[in-house]
Design goal:
The structure is a homodimer.
Chain A: E1 3-8, H1 16-31, E2 35-40, H2 46-57, H3 66-91, E3 96-99, E4 106-108, E5 117-120, H4 123-130, E6 134-137, E7 141-143, E8 149-151, H5 156-167, E9 172-177, E10 198-200, H6 201-209, H7 217-226, E11 230-234, H8 243-247, E12 251-254, H9 259-263, E13 268-272, E14 275-284, H10 289-299, E15 304-309, E16 316-324, H11 328-343, E17 347-351, E18 354-360, H12 370-380, E19 387-391, E20 394-400, H13 404-414
Parallel strand pairs in A: 1-2, 1-9, 2-6, 3-6, 9-11, 10-12
Antiparallel strand pairs in A: 4-5, 7-8, 11-12, 13-18, 14-16, 14-17, 15-16, 18-20, 19-20
Amino acid sequence: MALIVHKYGGTSMGSTERIRNVARRVAKWHKAGHQMVVVPSAMSGETNRLLALAKEVAPEKPGKAYGRELDMLASTGEQASSALLAIALQAEGLDAVSYAGWQVPIKTNDAYTKARIESIDDARVRADLDAGKVVIITGFQGIDDGGNITTLGRGGSDTSAVAVAAALKANECLIYTDVDGVYTTDPRVVPEARRLERVSFEEMLEMASMGSKVLQIRSVEFAGKYKVPLRVLSSFTPWDIDLNEEATSGTLITFEEDADMERAVVSGIAFNRDEAKVSVLGVPDKPGIAYQILGAVAEANIEVDVIIQNLSKDGKTDFSFTVHRNDFQKTVDLLKGKVVPALGAADVVGDSRICKVSIVGIGMRSHVGVASRMFKCLSDEGINIQMISTSEIKTSVVIDEKYMELAVRALHREFDLDQTADTIAR
Amino acid sequence: MALIVHKYGGTSMGSTERIRNVARRVAKWHKAGHQMVVVPSAMSGETNRLLALAKEVAPEKPGKAYGRELDMLASTGEQASSALLAIALQAEGLDAVSYAGWQVPIKTNDAYTKARIESIDDARVRADLDAGKVVIITGFQGIDDGGNITTLGRGGSDTSAVAVAAALKANECLIYTDVDGVYTTDPRVVPEARRLERVSFEEMLEMASMGSKVLQIRSVEFAGKYKVPLRVLSSFTPWDIDLNEEATSGTLITFEEDADMERAVVSGIAFNRDEAKVSVLGVPDKPGIAYQILGAVAEANIEVDVIIQNLSKDGKTDFSFTVHRNDFQKTVDLLKGKVVPALGAADVVGDSRICKVSIVGIGMRSHVGVASRMFKCLSDEGINIQMISTSEIKTSVVIDEKYMELAVRALHREFDLDQTADTIAR
């Protein structure tokens, strides 16, 4: 007997028929002898519907107290879907009870619409589990010290599920979603992309931060911090498939670096075109220029990703970095307005037609020459590299966005990730 | 400066545009210097939508724990509408905060789907009011001792509003609805029906129990118990009408029996066709027959309204009573199966094509002959009276349902309730 947490996304809860299938699946696990906790999202479309109503009653954002009321509003979506799932489980003959975040309670800070979980009291839930009940806990929400409802931000239900699993010391947290696992790269770009049976927590973190949308990055961070074994799997397999088959499907995000995992140098290729490049040209090369440029950007609440500073020539240097595309124009205006004159720099130029492509793999730690193999591969395809950024288990390059698909496909082949490459053990 | 509670029904909250109008109306009252508490219902249709989803996931009612989950589900409707109203008030420039029943808290017993309010803690609300905030409190719901959400049953938001007004010792509780007050009778039956400017609490109670749907009867009982001045008025007047005009519109349900109120003998005519008549014929006239018949009915959880026992003849009597039409067949079957053989009665006959018509008026206390004036009026119209029931301030008759409209119109005229009767002061 194990304690298992299931999390179901909005699509999996998208209709009453789907909710009944979720109930049948959970009942199957319960009947196999497991203690079951289920964390559902709101029915798909519900959160958007509620937030659209808020926009209709207040077209302009009406100040500070607005966030608290948005959370009161949006949290009703998960409360309703959780109650419906409890009813569906009761219809399957199980004893089931649903709790809103505040009833557990899941304590958070008071950063409305993007709160962070601070603690979870497991007493009530554990008593129910010991009494043989299936416990349903609303995703996405909690309660602050003032007794106000908070929400965790978009995709927060993943984080709720992992946090609940951590608090209960669950044996595994299964994230049911509309894809059947984590892939070596996006199958829409590379048809040969393979599902990974296992991926390390650190690789998953890099892939999630790089735009792989399978899991909310905060949930991966949480899983890492509390060592919660996570599995991503499809909620669209028939509910009555063999439990053992289901329990080993999808992708396991693991914390054990076993021998198998060492074999593959690169586990996946991540990419995104959400960024834009900004370059400050002809900056007098003095100490403190990075701070003068990036300090002003940070003060404007703009996040910076890749940063490079060219070699100095004649006492001048060029300084480049990437920001989210939504912040591109704001960044350029900010630099032109105040920073460039103060620095005595020559100009600011920008390019929003770039993309970032990354290879991610825990094997990079113990293999040399992986990055240069990546650069050679891109060079062979005639792709010019504009910026490079590296970490222990990832190498990212910024290139012209028109080469994105070409680069991803070439790298996928180069690192033997194609489905046909049967030399890869996993 | 007064402390005022506004309650808005589902139709008044039925769209985001209507919610904005509610916000503008509340803002007008707040700007006039009043402390404002608002109790909204769910947006019209929302509660039905949610309960229909529950029925889809569990076509059969799945046992005892079902009620708790239904309340978790249904309570989200008011939580959402309350948050939307808070946002709309913020958009009007006011400081507004919404509370779910559990946040106040409004404590109830644990009779899910039909809970009763036990206490209301006014500390949090009062602190907000003193800080100049408009406070919105979800109608229809509370929390039990176990920390579970409860709901008060259909129309429970009226009761929530009155209970909140009582707890805060509000100066007046205004129930905004889709009619503009309490009428002498249903204007769809008698076009000459007049709106009453004031009606006594006891008259309102009799009319509500008789099927006048303006207010939930429990809210009237609550208002009576705690002496909360209640006003029923329309939410469809333009929000920007003069506040003094608005504050005196509709119908005031009052606890003061002033001189004016003595003038009218009858205040209104109530009627319903929800009942059916059951007669047990040829019952041997011995002590205890009423208990033997009605005890069995009560044990089956069937409510009995009017009861008559005929004069005995040859040691036999007939015993008749009315039940809700939904319980009619069940009652007849029950009596035929066990009670009639045990009693040695001759037969059970029933008639579901009856109606009940009542005259209600606090003036009946001090006027004699009101009932006989009613009977004469009906006799003049050729209407046969089947049963009679009286109380201090009401006389009810059971008649053939085909005469219902005729009887109501005739009595409305007989007791000078028509709009043309300008001899009536109010």
